Amino acid sequence: MDVRSSFAAQTYAQARTAAAPKPVAAESGTVVGQFANTFTEALAKAESTARAAMTGGADPHALVEALASSQLAVETVATVRDRVVEAYQEILRMPI
């Protein structure tokens, strides 16, 4: 079985575009919109670095940095989500 990195990268790119959600337009003036744009840019940068490392265009050190930054971004978003849900639950518990 002959697996070439260019074939793998091409197949990955096709699968990625087919499964990608439709982009949601966030207002860039709001804090949430800026946060969403920053998060999206960080993930896109990490993905492009990973794709370049697959095809031999990036060194392993850059790949490790990209993976670490994307992991940090995802953990940050999860923490913010958890805090928002917790605040919403506290509001629901308030007596009227």
Q: How far from one another are the termini?
A: 68 Å
Let me know the largest β-sheet: none
Structural class: mainly alpha
What share of the residues lie within helices? over 70%
Give the amount of beta strand, in percent. under 5%
Q: What low-confidence regions span 5 or more consecutive residues with pLDDT below 50? A: none
Number of strands: 0
List the total number of helices: 3
Shape: elongated
State the order of secondary-structure elements, H for helix, E for strand.
HHH
Radius of gyration, whole Å: 18 Å
Could you tell me the mean pLDDT?
82
Report on this model:
With 96 residues, the chain is mainly alpha-helical. It has a domain at 27-93. It has helices at residues 5-19, 31-54, 60-93. α2 packs antiparallel against α3 (60-93). The longest helix has 34 residues, at 60-93. It is elongated and about 65 Å long. The termini are far apart. The relative contact order is 0.09.
Lay out the secondary structure.
Elements (H helix, E strand, L loop, with lengths): L4 H15 L11 H24 L5 H34 L3
Offer a quick outline of the entry.
By secondary structure, this protein is mostly helical. It has a domain at 27-93. The protein contains 3 helices and no strands.
Output the keywords.
3 helices, 96 residues, mainly alpha, single chain
